[in-house]
């Protein structure tokens, strides 16, 4: 019964309110209930929001779509992370029925904490998850990519699902490497990650809610034994280093360590799967650009594989939007915002701001300022895994297209049902036509 109440107060009410508001023409509700495969509707909704002014205002909340406005909200101390709660009694009930969890949007996750707690927590985590540490993973990632591609050689002449055979196994193997997961448990981690994928969405169904909670609970139970093992026999992995990390206040607590592992799994796995699938589909649809980047071989700069990653993140980001709550009265793009109001920042829209990106609705791997996208958020909550995602994307896309330069996407690709996270559930391809 408490599980049903938890879903009803966290998602059921939100689902009902958004559905009614969308049917009545509310653009914010339409955006948040939009089917992931309706790209034309997404462009229409964002265009109508822009036409309404710098900040779209509705009874549900406020929405900012400009590059400057989104960056301001994500970086300004006037805004704090916020998971929307129903008002009054329902909000109190939601808080009382929320079980302790390593959910990425619940404390003590880095996504759900604010200064000063967030400052100390992030400092310890970033001391381990450094750019140098990520670069040390590059060689390992390259070996994993080539192992997966070797397996695909035997089926290169017949259709395969690239998400199942490449886009998902590679990131989960990298995450397993980061968390120090033994080989025999990597399939379990893949199952946990897949089950937790809808955890960033609002208004999910009761069935999805149970799937997410069961996956996170199973992962947390598994972490009990895993963290104990890392304390007994620490390895060279980043999780072992995080377990040992300490400052004047001591080491991270058990809940914080589990929440970090849960965030790495829920936010770091699915987003990279989506990046690889989205980028592969975009390159297929822009064959001349694909041929150019394959032939160029540049390490950096416009037209390089790294710039392909940046442009894919800009054009079709793995995360559609995120939200904040105003802690005091302020302004965004000249529009007043009152204390306590929620504001949605649409990363997809910011990445297509014509004031920043010339011809923003065109996919262009030679775009010189592609890296100015906000796909990784901004400010104190800028994605900790940004360097890792960039490295994985560059390695994976380069290796795939160098091995199979004539890769053909077949009919039948299906988008995921998640709305905040955007990517392909299945991507049928013929690797060697």
Automatic annotation (TrEMBL):
Keyword terms, alphabetized: Heme, Iron, Metal-binding, Monooxygenase, Oxidoreductase
Name of the protein: Cytochrome P450
Keyword Cell membrane: no
PANTHER family: BIOTIN BIOSYNTHESIS CYTOCHROME P450 (PTHR46696:SF4), P450, PUTATIVE (EUROFUNG)-RELATED (PTHR46696)
Gene3D superfamilies referenced in this protein's UniProt entry, alphabetically: Cytochrome P450
InterPro entries: Cyt_P450, Cyt_P450_B, Cyt_P450_CS, Cyt_P450_sf
Keyword tRNA processing among UniProt keywords: no
PROSITE patterns associated with the record: CYTOCHROME_P450 (PS00086)
Domain of life where this protein originates: Bacteria
Family: Belongs to the cytochrome P450 family.
Species the sequence originates in: Nocardioides yefusunii
Pfam entry (one): p450
């Amino acid at each position: 019964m408490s599980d049903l109440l938890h879903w009803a107060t966290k998602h059921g009410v939100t689902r009902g309110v958004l559905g009614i508001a969308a049917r009545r023409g509310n653009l914010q509700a339409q955006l948040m209930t939009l089917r992931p495969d309706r790209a034309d509707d997404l462009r229409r909704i964002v265009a109508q929001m822009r036409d309404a002014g710098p900040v779209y205002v509705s009874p549900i909340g406020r929405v900012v779509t400009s590059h400057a406005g989104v960056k301001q909200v994500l970086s300004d101390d006037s805004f704090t992370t916020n998971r929307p709660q129903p008002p009054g009694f329902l909000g109190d009930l939601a808080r009382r029925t929320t079980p302790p969890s390593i959910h990425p949007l619940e404390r003590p996750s880095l996504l759900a904490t604010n200064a000063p707690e967030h400052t100390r927590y992030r400092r310890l985590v970033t001391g381990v998850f450094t750019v140098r540490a990520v670069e040390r993973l590059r060689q390992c990632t390259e070996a994993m990519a080539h192992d997966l591609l070797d397996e695909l050689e035997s089926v290169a002449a017949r259709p395969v699902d690239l998400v199942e055979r490449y886009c998902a196994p590679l990131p989960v193997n990298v995450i397993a490497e980061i968390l120090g997961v033994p080989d025999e448990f990597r399939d379990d981690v893949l199952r946990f990650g897949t089950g937790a994928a809808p955890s960033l969405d609002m208004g999910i169904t009761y069935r999805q809610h149970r799937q997410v909670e069961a996956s996170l609970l199973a992962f947390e139970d598994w972490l009990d034994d895993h963290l104990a093992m890392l304390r007994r026999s620490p390895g060279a992995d980043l999780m072992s280093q995080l377990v040992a990390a300490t400052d004047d206040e001591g080491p991270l607590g058990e809940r914080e360590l589990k929440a970090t592992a849960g965030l790495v799994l829920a936010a770091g796995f699915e987003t990279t799967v989506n990046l690889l699938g989205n980028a592969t589909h975009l390159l297929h649809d822009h064959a001349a650009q694909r041929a150019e980047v394959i032939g160029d071989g540049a390490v950096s700069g416009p037209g390089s594989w790294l710039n392909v990653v940046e442009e894919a993140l800009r054009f079709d980001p793995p995360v559609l939007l995120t939200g904040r709550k105003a802690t005091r009265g302020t302004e965004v793009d000249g529009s007043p915002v009152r204390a306590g109001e929620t504001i949605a920042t649409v990363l997809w829209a910011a990445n297509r701001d014509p004031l920043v990106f010339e011809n923003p609705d065109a996919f262009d791997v030679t775009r010189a300022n592609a890296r100015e996208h906000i796909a990784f958020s901004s400010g104190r909550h800028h994605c900790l895994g940004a360097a890792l995602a960039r490295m994985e994307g560059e390695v994976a896309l380069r290796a795939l297209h160098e091995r199979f330069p004539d890769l053909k996407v077949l009919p039948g690709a299906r988008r995921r049902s998640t709305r905040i996270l955007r990517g392909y559930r299945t991507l049928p391809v013929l690797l060697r036509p």
